[in-house]
């Protein structure tokens, strides 16, 4: 009960830091994990690096499907923590894990059947296609433990615990540094797997993370492992989770399709442009990770205070989050414009690849303020349980407008790739402004009740 009181009574600044910092740190460890993959793959070949870019976009799509469920789990649990309904919370936990397992298993089968067709549709060709298929055929087996781990993290973070996942992510990062060269180059009885070795390392680490998270959940007495085989899901709870989850998942799926669309357009330049974008995209994500940590804090705090009907605190959460978002954005601009080129040289020495990546991160850094506002508004709208508008806005932002603009830039005007990056800045700020107006309207409506 103490934790519940803190989430609805403690100083907002203190709570944001307490929840957001460990969440952001965990995400940073996760991104560094993928950057380690990128560094090792870049030493194999530029083709392998380009393949990894295609695989990253597909993995983002896969995670997007589960993202909505993790958001829904965190919001539903947070809402009922605010209402102090402990028994219902345990039912939600069981149903969330059941749904995550079902979705992950179904996805694994679909991907196994249509993997080549998916990569061909994305624009992968020749050796790049071969490497991408080889990598993803192994990664498919990590989907079940990955989905379950993320949902357990959502359960814990709804209770204000973002440290546990951060800690295991740090262990995962450390293991990745050791296992990547071991499986890529081979050692003793372990054969040389090359590019596939990166996927084998990832599979093993995801299994270790899942086992750790499950044991931790058990010791927190939030799940009874002895009753798992006898577990019967609740149709009512599953329906409630689905209604909250599908707009968020659809939103993330649209974002992932947008990324796939973007990489497809970039592939019309050449494979080096794809490789450069892949590196730049990872660097950009690393800088933005603190904002994702704030997003986790927003969904936890807003959903809990919404359940407790503390609307004034919800507005304070927005104001404080915006302040932190502005600071992160300015910091990101300074870091990327000043040190971006030096950072990129860690990943590849090809002049064309680095030039593409550098222009990408510099242009995108000036969109950070708009991106952070989009993150904050989206998290707020989700947490007050009104997420249905988000996929529509994102569909226009990620699919409709870019399809038209990118086509004009590449095929009609024959502009260089930097015009693609500039157009993304304009689209980002336009979306941020609309979401801000929409959120302010919704918060005004909440005050009436």
- What's the number of extended β-strand segments? 0
Give the averaged pLDDT, no decimals: 85
Helix content: over 70%
Q: How far apart are the termini? A: 26 Å
**Biggest pleated-sheet summary:** none
The number of helical elements comes to 15
As a percent range, the share of strand residues is under 5%
Q: What structural class results from the helix and strand content?
A: mainly alpha
Radius of gyration: 21 Å
Give the overall silhouette. globular
What does this structure look like?
With 449 residues, this protein is mainly α. 84% of the residues lie in helices and 0% in strands. It has helices at 2-9, 12-42, 46-82, 86-122, 126-139, 143-158, 163-185, 196-219, 235-266, 271-307, 311-344, 351-365, 368-383, 389-412, 418-447.
């Amino acid at each position: 009960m103490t934790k519940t009181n803190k989430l609805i009574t403690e100083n907002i600044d203190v709570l944001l830091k307490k929840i957001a910092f460990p969440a952001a740190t965990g995400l940073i460890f996760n991104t560094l994990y993928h950057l380690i993959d990128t560094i090792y793959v870049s030493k194999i070949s530029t083709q392998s690096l380009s393949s990894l870019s295609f695989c990253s976009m597909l993995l983002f799509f896969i995670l997007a499907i589960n993202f909505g469920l993790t958001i829904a789990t965190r919001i539903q649990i947070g809402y009922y923590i605010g209402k102090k309904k402990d028994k219902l919370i345990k039912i939600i936990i069981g149903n969330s894990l059941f749904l995550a397992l079902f979705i992950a298993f179904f996805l694994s089968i679909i991907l196994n059947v249509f993997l080549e067709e998916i990569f061909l549709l994305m624009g992968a060709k020749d050796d790049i296609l071969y490497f991408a298929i080889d990598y993803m055929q192994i990664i498919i087996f990590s989907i079940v433990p990955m989905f379950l781990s993320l949902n357990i993290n959502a359960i814990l973070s709804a209770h204000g615990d973002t440290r546990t996942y951060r800690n295991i992510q740090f262990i995962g990062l450390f293991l990745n540094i050791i296992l990547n060269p071991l499986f890529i180059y081979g050692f003793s009885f372990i054969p040389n797997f090359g590019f596939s070795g990166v996927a084998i390392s990832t599979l093993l680490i995801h299994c270790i993370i899942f086992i750790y998270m499950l044991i931790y959940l058990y010791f927190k007495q939030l799940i009874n492992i002895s009753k798992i085989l006898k577990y019967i899901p609740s149709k009512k709870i599953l329906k409630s989770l689905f209604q909250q989850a599908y707009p968020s998942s659809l939103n993330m799926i649209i974002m992932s399709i947008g990324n796939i669309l973007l990489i497809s357009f970039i592939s019309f330049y050449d494979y080096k442009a794809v490789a450069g974008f892949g590196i730049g995209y990872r660097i950009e994500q690393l800088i933005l990770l603190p904002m994702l940590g704030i997003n986790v804090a927003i969904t936890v705090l807003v959903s809990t205070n919404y359940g407790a009907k503390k609307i004034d605190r919800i507005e304070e959460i927005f104001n404080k989050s915006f302040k932190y978002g502005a600071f992160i954005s300015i910091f990101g601009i300074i870091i990327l414009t000043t040190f971006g080129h030096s950072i990129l040289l860690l990943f590849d020495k090809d002049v064309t690849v680095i030039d593409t990546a550098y222009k990408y991160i510099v242009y995108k850094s000036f969109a950070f303020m708009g991106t952070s506002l989009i993150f904050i508004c989206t998290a707020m709208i989700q947490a007050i349980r009104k997420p249905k508008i988000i996929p529509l806005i994102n569909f226009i932002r990620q699919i409709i407008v870019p399809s038209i603009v990118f086509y004009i830039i590449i095929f009609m005007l024959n502009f260089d790739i930097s015009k693609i990056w500039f157009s993304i800045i304009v689209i980002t700020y336009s979306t941020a402004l609309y979401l801000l107006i929409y959120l302010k309207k919704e918060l005004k409506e909440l005050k009436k009740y």
